[in-house]
Amino acid sequence: MAESLREARALGHVRRLGVYGGSFDPVHLGHLHVARVAQRAFALEHVVFVPAAEPPHKPGRKLASREDRVRMLELALADEPRWSISTLEFERAGPSFTVDTLRALPQRLALAPEAELYLLIGWDNLRGLERWRSVRELLALAQLVVVWRAGADEGLLDSLRRELGPELYANIARGLVREPPAPESSTELRATLARGGEPLDALPAGVLEYIRSRGIYR
Asked: Which strands, in side-by-side order, build the sheet including 176-177?
């Protein structure tokens, strides 16, 4: 695969780095909203978007090609100088476990030893967090940042407190951002696109045109 035009370079000057993983199938304005909210709330100097090769929680689901997902990210991030892409997970075989990415990114990006990682996730991704690969190490490697979803079941937090214990749960509590997220959903967008709809208000500039030109999701 050709190197991304927005591929993250050495970020040795960055001390607070946001890491945003996901399928990005397709990337939409809700994703960009989460990145902006997290960047503002935690004074992140840079955010790296990391598209998953094989999301472990979506076994067997056919994704748009890696090249298409990276190109859509490039279009979405074009006007954001403090955002970039890492295709690190495309270089590993098997499921894309987040803890492996957090282990590898500091060396990949030549981060300073004192650099802090902030892992950006959506509220929906909290469900089942206690079963993520090496979750204790994951929460030691990065501060979680979770943007609240309107109407979300806050009983989920009580469940995580019981499952993870007070020490690990403290990481989650520190990273909660109670700002309503944008309502876009990748699943709903794919369905709309498959029907021939054009969700102009939900996709970044250039992404819808790219999807149409490539016939993705049709």
From this structure: 83-85, 46-51, 16-22, 116-122, 142-147, 176-177
